[in-house]
Amino acid sequence: MKLENVLAALPEQEVTIDVLQEKYAKGDEQTVHDVRRRVARALASIEAPAQREHWEAEFLWAMENGFIPAGRINSAAGTEIQATLINCFVQPIGDAVWGHDENGTPGIYAALQEAAETMRRGGGVGYDFSSIRPKGALVRGTHSRASGPVSYMRVFDKSCETLESAGSRRGAQMGVLRVDHPDVEEFVHAKRDGSLSNFNMSVAVSDAFMQAVQDDADFELVHEVRPFDGEDDAQPRADGKFVYRTIRARELWDQIMRSTYDHAEPGVIFIDRVNRDNNLSYCETIEASNPCGEQFLPPYGCCDLGSLNLVRFVSDPFGQAPSFDFERFDRAVSIAIRALDNVLDLTLWPLPAQDREAKAKRRVGLGFTGLGNALTMLKLRYDSQAGRDFASTIACRMRDTAYETSVALAGERGAFPLFDAEQYLAEPHAASRLPEPLKARIRKEGIRNSHLMSIAPTGTISIAFGGNSSGGIEPAFSWTYTRRKRMPDGSRREYEVEDFAYRLFRHMGGNVAALPDYFVSAMQISALDHMRMSAAVQPCVDSAISKTVNVAEDYPYDEFKTLYQEAWKAGLKGITTYRPNAVIGSVLSVSSAPTPQQPQDLTEDPDRRLRLDKLPRPALSSLRWPSRPRLAAGNMAWSYMFEPLDHRVSFCIFIGQTEETIERLDGSRAVRSLPFETWVNGNEQPRGLGAIAKALSMDMRSNDRSWLKLKLDALAKTRDEQPLQLPFPPEGEVRWSPGVVAAFAEIVRHRCEELGTFDALDAQPTPMLDALMFRKEPKSGPLGTLSWTADISNAATGDDFVLGVKELQLPDGTRRPYSIWLSGDYPKVLDGLCKLLSLDMHVVDVSWVGLKLRKLRSFGELNGSFWAPVPGESRQQVYPSTVAYIAELILHRYKVLGLLDDEGRAIGGAGALALPESDVAPAAPTEVPVMAGQACPSCGAHAYIRKDGCMFCTACGHQGECG
């Protein structure tokens, strides 16, 4: 089955249209075809007049068949925007404050000015700061001590912060320092104070250093400039460098690894490998990379990028014999190389030096995207040897076709000016690994472009132009997630985003509730298998590969260090990892020491103390499903008639269940039933009991069974205005109960016990209990506690009462609600709801109670709607019930305290690490891994992580600028 025929019937996702319009469409452009047509016409304008129409059609064909030029090309080519079409540059910095240093390299402030112009025109910039003299080095002119490269990096950081690049693209920077620079330790730890946020950072590691680590040897930190304290007697080494100090290599390596493990930076560049593999090592030295790390470049070098979307070349996806269309692939590669060569002559260059450098070497970087999806469509696991073999085949086929095209272009347009055949093809350069017939052609005919391959992060271009196919070389990160979009009126709406392969599989009739084993996502793949994929592809890539190895929070540190050493041994040019953790995500850390305004612990009860033994994972990560799962085939539900002897009320309790397959220790599998929701039905049900059932259903969907038991225990103690007698299951035994809520809890508990929910609790994980600030509510003591109250009056139901919210002040100064109560005329059933929500408030992750309150905000009851003041505004609106208004008021209080936003989503700190939640959840759990990260520029959640070489928010789906 041809993919084109399938795609013709597959409508575009809303996210692809949104991102296209937000990032790339210009003027009247509405569709992806409109953008491609503009770009094709612009690229063809470089061709001879008689050939322009032909090449415009060819470029358009290539783009319609999988070629995706980089983001800057798609956004600016063919427009009147005075911006560069080049994504990123590397620019030099010399050891001088003003002007140029003795080698003619721009000094610090001259380099800063050049960087500002480059970023203003839309380019990101990478720098090597190693030439800047170390802190404490001699400054002869003033006989003073130097402040060191990190101090000047802060100047560059602030400059970037104030600049907004063309097209509203915030500037991106990469800072590199050699591992033998005397200030390398300061560099490694420089971002711990929250500064340098506009930099990615990498250490340029030499082979000599890695060998010293292997041998547990000492390592010298050196620089060309004499130390201040050694002005008279210090002698340079044979290479002219002064030794500032000697350090044990493993000690320095451990500092780098610890920082990367805890803070996701710095990255590691194996700089000697980069230079050995460089086709142009005979005429340039590479010291830095562009901000996303897939292009190692000389001073003023640029990355002129494009990608082939591999999913577009798969025939008969998921079929009996899926295959790859190499013939069409070769044609697309060849056209893409010509297009990228044209970009070098079409673009605006921010600096003349960049223009000269590009024209002398004509570097381009063609890579691929959608590898993870393509492997899935071919029914190959990403982490299998077969998957790696296929990726290697694709990379080498792309390389050979690209080099053949560049040879042909040399015959038409001339070789790049610095071409020297013998030096270019010399070992161990990347070009030396080409097939012999192709090397013979290069010797005879020359080659147009010095470098041709680069696998970049593709970010938003994979969404806008690839139907949300997996990015770059990466596997799919998640099969679905929920994206939150801000509307013109300031409101937000949510919609589901699906991975391309997942969506195609479902469209073709596949069962997404039971995905085949070749559907494997990033967090299901071992770190070493991530690295092995890079190693399989790297020999065929003459530049570099941008890949982020995402590892789990509990990934062992020793294995983490080994991963980097294995990458060096495997011949990689660099490696970047991301491990979510509390340090990155600023998860709230509380201590047991009370402040005067905190409730005092008078009972010495450890369950009442304000303390966390360890920083918990975000609470919402314990949910199997953020909302009720779609169950297309239906599900079983157990029911029980609630009929007390006094006939006070009569209604039916339902408990829905689903099934999951578990694997026993002996390897066998079994099916068990899980309760995942409860509800009540009947006109005589007490007001508010439906809200309790709704809130309790979310607790049922948690993977913490002890948490559900805690909730049921609390409800079982809830007293009504008078007790009641009720026949209880399973035999109809009549027993007294404190009230309707308590009896309801006992019936729900009975069914859960029948299903084995509470079996072997001691051996089960307790992520929710671990996330509690305290198990029991703290006692306030004689000094009292903080409290916030609000009046609620619902004339439709006769409710007239006060809502009270008890608050405490945490050691970090944060005010937190921790309990709610009601006083006045209200349905006493709501006391049970207060118990549930108070326990939810004890969870350190405020996103948990935020999600509960958002669900209750829409809770309605028959004839219970009423007009009420909107919290914080001078207007009124209709609320669907008293319960809904209680939820609205509590949400508002969390907002006033700076804990939740308008939508009830966490703001920073604790609770900012929530899974996205939608009103209708998919059949299988949403697979966006919960990861601590930086504050997202779109939603503010501390869930902005490095994914596929780009930044991505796991809370709202915001995609960072790259590609």
Automatic annotation (TrEMBL):
GO molecular function, one term: ribonucleoside-diphosphate reductase activity, thioredoxin disulfide as acceptor
Keyword Ligase: no
Family, similarity comment: Belongs to the ribonucleoside diphosphate reductase class-2 family.
UniProt key word Disulfide bond: yes
Protein name: Vitamin B12-dependent ribonucleotide reductase
Domain of life: Bacteria
Organism: Zeimonas arvi
Function: Catalyzes the reduction of ribonucleotides to deoxyribonucleotides. May function to provide a pool of deoxyribonucleotide precursors for DNA repair during oxygen limitation and/or for immediate growth after restoration of oxygen.
